[in-house]
């Protein structure tokens, strides 16, 4: 048990018919998000992302939690349907309608993707938030194992 209670307000009544809310398996981390569209939406390769309604709003209201919207693994890897903002963060105080920023990452000149009404196109993952105390310093205290980062991004090499 997570100890987190989240209220969900259905905006699109079709969600109930599509089985929302549900996780695809007993151990799935992500709650399936459906495309609440009235007609098919065509996503051309490399075109600007579009916002697709998820059909609901939620109230997390616990400052130790947030929700994150991720693409579905197979759709992203196999088909090229990813999120235009890579990951969507739903803060605990946001209670408006959830929207999915859908983008076709495939190269220009390839076939467009079709998103159909009710299709599961993303997933919502709830996660804890840590808000550390931040201290502004002129220099860092000496690290026990020596400092890293002097070599820049990727300085530890491959493998």
Automatic annotation (TrEMBL):
State the superkingdom. Bacteria
Q: What are the residue boundaries of the dUTPase-like domain, all occurrences included?
A: 20-157
Q: Which GO terms describe its biological process?
A: dUMP biosynthetic process; dUTP catabolic process
Q: Which InterPro entries match?
A: dUTPase, dUTPase-like, dUTPase-like_sf, dUTPase_trimeric
Gene3D superfamilies per record: 2.70.40.10
Give the Gene Ontology MF terms in alphabetical order.
dUTP diphosphatase activity; magnesium ion binding; transaminase activity
What EC numbers are recorded for this enzyme? 3.6.1.23
Return the Pfam families for the record: dUTPase (PF00692)
Keyword set, alphabetical order: Aminotransferase, Hydrolase, Nucleotide metabolism, Transferase
Per its UniProt entry, what is the enzyme's top EC class, as one word? hydrolase
Looking up NCBIfam families in the UniProt record yields: dut, PRK00601.1
Q: Which family does it belong to?
A: Belongs to the dUTPase family.
Protein's UniProt name: dUTP diphosphatase
Organism for this UniProt entry? Methylobacterium tarhaniae
């Amino acid at each position: 048990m997570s100890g987190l209670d989240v209220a969900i307000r259905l905006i699109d009544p079709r969600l109930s018919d599509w089985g929302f809310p549900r996780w695809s398996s007993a151990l799935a981390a992500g709650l399936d998000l459906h495309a609440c569209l009235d007609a098919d939406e065509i996503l051309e390769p490399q075109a600007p992302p579009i916002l697709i309604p998820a059909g609901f709003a939620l109230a997390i209201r616990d400052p130790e939690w947030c929700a994150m919207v991720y693409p579905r693994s197979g759709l992203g890897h196999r088909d090229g349907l990813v999120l235009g903002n890579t990951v969507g963060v739903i803060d605990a105080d946001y209670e408006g309608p959830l929207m999915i920023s859908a983008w076709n990452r495939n190269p220009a000149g390839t076939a467009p993707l079709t998103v159909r009404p009710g299709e599961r196109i993303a997933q919502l993952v709830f996660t804890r938030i840590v808000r550390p105390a931040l201290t502004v310093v002129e220099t860092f205290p000496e690290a026990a194992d020596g400092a890293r980062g002097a070599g820049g991004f990727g300085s530890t090499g491959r493998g």
